[in-house]
Amino acid sequence: MLDAPLGGPVCRACWSAVRLCTPPFCRTCGDPLPSWRVVSLALEQCARCRRHPPLFHAGRTAGEYEGTLRDILQAFKYDDRRALARPLGALLRAAGADLLRGADCVVPVPLHAWRRLGRGFNQADALARQLGAPVVRALSRTRATPPQTGLTAAARRHNVRGAFRISPLLSRRARARWLAARTVLLVDDVRTTGATLSACAAVLLDAGAREVRILTVARAAPPAAAATRTA
User: Fold this and answer.
1) Hey, which bits of the chain come out as E strands?
2) Helix (H) or strand (E) holding 121
3) Which residues sit opposite 89 in a β-bridge?
4) By the 8 A CB rule, do 211 and 185 touch?
5) Exposed end of the chain (fewer CB within 10 Å): N or C?
6) Residues 155-176, mean pLDDT to the nearest whole number
7) What share of the chain is helix, strand, coil (3-state, %, to 5)?
8) How many domains in the chain?
9) What is the mean pLDDT of the chain?
10) Burial of 21 from C-beta contacts in 10 A (0-12 / 13-18 / 19+)
11) CATH number, domain containing residue 200
12) 194 is in which domain, residue-wise?
């Protein structure tokens, strides 16, 4: 049902059903932590970031990739509901206010050219344009990787290894202006293990970025965790 104030084919009741992430958060990846009582205040990090520190410096996600939010994101990506970029962007701005503060530019995670052609647009790019900061399409995909869905964390890292580079369309002047010693906010729709975002962060850091932050609409449980929860 259309709800005009939200600018998309989702009713107000469904937006209200979205389960947002609430603090406390891991100061590195932004995942919600169970309680400050069981977390070292000195670290403020989840177990995964303590075991395997990611390449990005800080992260945040708006909600959980389940129920209504999953349905909304799938409609946005696969059913060409591009009007949903605006309300989803509002979720991102609210969740990522601290990350947007001080960011020099926003970089969307790129789609491979063939996948973008088939889908008609890049959902990460559409979201990035809702954030009010300069959007720099600094990255491109070097190959069309198989979907990450269902892959283990190790398989995801292998799948995207070497899959990104600085876009050949980014001029040397633009690279110096937006990346060299700059704080970059990397945007995507869903984060699971962070393998894709880490691969993109590595390229941006190699290009001279001082700091890479990540912001996503939703976070999905890694396959192993999802299997344990549903077993």
Assistant:
1) 58-64, 105-108, 139-141, 164-166, 183-191, 211-219
2) none
3) none
4) no
5) C
6) 82
7) 40, 20, 40
8) 1
9) 85
10) middle
11) 3.40.50
12) 4-230
